[in-house]
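> run fold DUF2251 domain-containing protein
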Amino acid sequence: MVATEEIFESCVRSAGDLAGVFEYNGETGYFYLYATGAAGEARVLDAIHVVSGEVSFTASDIAIEWEQGETRVGLFIRGQLRASFDATNMTKLGETPRKEPQRATPKKRSK
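> ok
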């Protein structure tokens, strides 16, 4: 089954201050480290590009989990870790390069 609609999954750690959030808009998917904060203070702290184009997973294949110490959060797709944030060190793993359009190389002009 191919996901043809949007997917939004999140998991807030027990302190209530940070969340791991996966969002797929039908074309591109990102995993975010999100500061929940008070109204007006909530914001994305960092993002990891996970996928572009059609995907072969659905919302039921997504799990976001904080490890036991709640310093790291991971995005799992079909049980496989695809991306993670370390909230203590503000580091990330799992960036997928975005496909850039191919640009034609200009030809040299003859004199």
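The mean pLDDT is 86.
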